[in-house]
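Data availability (excerpt). The following record was deposited with the supplementary files.
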Amino acid sequence: MDRNIWIGVGAGFLVGCFIGYFAGSNRSTPVPAPLPMPATAGAVPAMPPGSLELQQGMFTAQQAVERDPRNLQAWIALGNGYFDSHQPQKSIDAYGKALELDPSNADVLTDQGIMYREIKAFDKAVANFEKANKVNPKHLQSLYNLGIVYAHDMNARDKAVKTWSRIIEMEPTSQQAQLSRKALEELKANPTPR
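Predicted structure:
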């Protein structure tokens, strides 16, 4: 009888932890960062690098790509997990596998471009952002990130101004247009590169 009670208590504890964990994890808060979360995740904040949810998601994605190397969504999820856990080269590689399966995915191109910027491969970042915008000319996030690299990494301020102005012209009420206006103001306030 005592053994059954302890089994019941243990099972109840695990169920309670499981319910509490999922009820308490909310990824719906927008992020107003210069180079936001993976575009494939929308405006969703990063989970802490060591979070259990992040680790479980990466483990699940890794198992899925091992079972089926042509699982596009699993490669994207794995790339996003590495992105969120600040492992840029692994993220680049996972996104590369996703792009082998879907070379015209503007979101994945943009996310991979952000990771290229992270490792200071600025030419590759620019190439990804340009390709994402060529694939989808209304892909504002790729344009915004292109402006960031031009302005802050390549000292191509004129190109940054053109890029951000284009966003404002295309979609004046978008979040990227608001961020572009702010970035343009910062460029005007600091006429010399940092």
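Summary of structural features: Residues 31-189 form a domain with the Serine Threonine Protein Phosphatase 5, Tetratricopeptide repeat fold (CATH 1.25.40.10).
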